[in-house]
Design brief:
Layout: H1 3-12, E1 20-25, H2 32-42, E2 48-50, H3 60-66, H4 80-92, E3 97-104, E4 109-118, E5 123-127, E6 147-152, H5 155-168, H6 173-181, H7 183-192, E7 200-203
Parallel strand pairs: 1-5, 1-6, 2-5, 6-7
Antiparallel strand pairs: 3-4
Helix pairs in contact: 5-6, 6-7
Bound molecules: adenosine-5'-diphosphate and magnesium ion (MG).
Length: 215
């Protein structure tokens, strides 16, 4: 399997002209966003859109109300039903533009209206942690996805990248390690348990050399 095979498999999902949503799941820092961005770059930009699940993070103000501010990133700290509703609206394919929320990493907050999805976008690449979780409000998501691919990266390298990312976005070393091996790791275990539900496992090595500048 090569990256070009992935591009062909993704574009085949929209051969009939109908909108399709390709999901990419995987543990924190496994490379979901990088894979989605590389796919989008490789496909005619009018025909494809990148809609991350990250945009459905609950805002801090709501996490405070719920007493879940320190669990940011856990399954219950997202608006899973809102995400499913957006996927249904994308499938309905009735609007010239559909706005999706983005996630701003520097402030760790969702931003409404950040991502326009134009009518011409047939393939929607969506990526996030919990696409294949089979219980609770997440259970309605996988049936709305044409395929789900699992971004697979060995645990040691994944945690290294995760700590790096926390550091880049302002956490000190101790905090970065604590999040990566604490809260984030609990979430990673939930995601790892969904791995076998994937239609395709994508090894991280497949993206090597495609240029994934740290961000
Ligand atoms: N091939 C690579 N080599 C080294 N670091 C990478 C590579 N691909 C991605 N990264 C880094 O790993 C981190 C996690 O990647 P990302 O795609 O954001 O993962 P996810 O969306 O699953 O959390 C990012 O900070 C990114 O810069
Ligand atoms: Mg990501």
């Amino acid at each position: 399997m090569t990256f070009d095979d992935l591009v062909r498999r993704a574009t085949a999902l929209v051969e009939d002209g109908r909108r399709a949503v390709l999901g990419i799941a995987g543990a924190p820092a496994a490379g979901k966003t990088t894979l989605a961005e590389e796919l989008v770059k490789a496909i005619d930009s009018d025909r494809v859109a990148h809609v991350p699940m990250d945009g459905f993070h609950l805002a801090d103000v709501e996490l405070e109300r719920l007493g879940r501010r320190n669990a940011k990133g856990a399954p219950d700290t997202f608006d899973a039903l809102g995400y499913a509703a957006l996927l249904r609206r994308l499938h309905a394919d009735e609007d010239d533009v559909i706005y999706a929320p983005g996630f701003e990493r520097t402030i760790e907050q969702p931003i409404a209206g950040a991502i326009p999805v134009f009518r011409s976008a047939r393939l929607i690449v969506s990526e996030g942690n919990y696409l294949m979780v089979g219980d609770g409000p997440w259970a309605g998501v996988q049936p709305l996805l044409s395929e789900v691919w699992y971004a697979d990266l060995d645990q040691e390298e994944r945690i290294r990248r995760l700590i790096d990312r926390h550091r880049r976005f302002g956490k000190d070393e101790a905090d970065a390690v604590e999040w990566a091996t604490g809260t984030d790791e609990l979430n990673a275990q939930v995601i790892l348990a969904t791995r076998e539900r994937a239609d395709l496992i994508v090894p991280a090595a497949l993206l090597r050399g495609l240029g994934a500048p740290p961000q």
